[in-house]
Amino acid sequence: MHAADRKTLGLDLLRVQQNWPLGMPVCRSLGGGLWEVRSNLANGAIARMIFCLENNKVFVLHGFIKKTQATPKTDLDLARKRMKEVLR
Fold it and tell me: Count of CB atoms within 10 A of residue 17's CB?
C-alpha cells in the first residue's frame, strides 16, 4: 500500500473520530454495533475499515480492499469475532 493510500485511510479514520456521529459517504452502519469507514484510494481501489465503539473509543477491527459490491461474509465474521474479544 502506498503512502498516499495510508494517509487517506488515516484522514478518513480521523474524520470519524473527530466528528462522530458521522454518516455517508464516509461512514455507514453494518448493524450489530459494527460500522465501516469508506475510503477511496488514489489508484481507484475502495478500502473499508470495520470498527466498533465503546465509551467514546473507536476500535478498528478489520480493514480490507473491497472487490465486490457487498461486504464479504468472511470479513464481517472476522470483525464480529474481534469485537467480542475487544468488548469483553
Answer: 14
Strands lying side by side in the sheet with 57-66: 27-31, 34-40, 46-54, 57-66
Instruction: Report yes or no: 13 and 58 within 8 Å, Cβ to Cβ.
Output: yes
Q: Is the pLDDT of residue 1 over 80?
A: no
* CB distance 40 to 86 below 8 Å: no
Place of cell 469507514: 37
Mean pLDDT of 18-22: 92
Secondary structure class of 43 (helix, strand, coil): coil
pTM as predicted: 0.93
End-to-end CA distance of the chain: 32
Neighbour tally for 25: CB within 10 Å: 8
Q: Which three cell numbers stand for residue 11?
A: 484522514
3-state DSSP assignment of residue 68: coil
